[in-house]
Design a protein that fits this description.
Blueprint lengths: L2 E7 L5 H12 L3 E3 L8 E8 L6 H5 L3 E9 L1 E3 L8 E4 L6 H7 L5 E5 L8 E2 L2 E2 H6 L9 E13 L4 E8 L5 H11 L4 E11 L2 E2 L29 E2 L3 H8 L4 E2 L5 E6 L5 E8 L2 E7 L2
Parallel strand pairs: 3-12, 14-16
Antiparallel strand pairs: 1-3, 2-3, 4-11, 4-12, 5-6, 7-10, 8-9, 10-11, 12-13, 15-18, 16-17, 17-18
Length: about 280
Amino acid sequence: MTGFINVNKEQGFSSAKEVAKIKFLTKTPCGHMGTLDPMASGVLPVAIGNATRLFDYFLSKNKTYIAVFKFGVSYDTLDTTGNLLFEGGSVPSVKQILSVLGNFRGEIEQLPPKYSAKNVNGKRGYQLARKGIDFTLSPKTVKINSVELLEQVSDDEFSFKIDCGGGTYIRSIARDMGEMLGTCAAMSGLSRTRSGVFTIENSVQTKFLTAENIGQYIIKTQDVLSFDSIYPTEREAKRLLNGLTVEYASPDGTYKFFDGYGEFYGLAEIKSNILKVKTKLC
């Protein structure tokens, strides 16, 4: 069994717990394509079987979030699930927030939260932070395609729609936006509405999945890949599936590879008119 389940993760659940449910129902190794914190909800693509080999491919995909930032407060985790460090700071106006949004578009340098899955000498950042171990993270370059202020949802909270590249920390945007406005801020709500081709509209909560119906929700691996397809002859496919190469007059790049019988196999690569099978995904 291979493919994807587009999970709509519920708030309060860990990403690992959602993956464990899919693994239990399919009796197949699984993995998620981009974790969501327990406080967050929304799109969590779960890969089944050989589809987990596409992790690096999905890591770079654009994602869309609806986030809520609470101004005038500071937490050690940069979200309101952590320990409160400060409260009583000023709350900016809509006009003030709009004046700084341009600073959060394009490629920017961003300091990841210490309470994150960032690797620090073989340990996760959150593991060290929970033990009170001090450490330093380096800023990283992230790409933010757009940030839109949606509405003021309470006296000190505002919601935003953020479209960004993989690896962007929404909590860090809240922190940095607060500092830029001369105050502080933390993320108080988060929902991912899109991750690459996966959207909230065609997602499913794992509580509705059973061993009997899960097959209806499995998305074929080839259906989530945007590459062009290659259909070699039976003779060519036999060579390729035995680890050999064949001449193939197509532009250099990665392709969806179908065997000599028209069945999807995985990914292939062409370099200088030489075709070679790259990754088995079926």
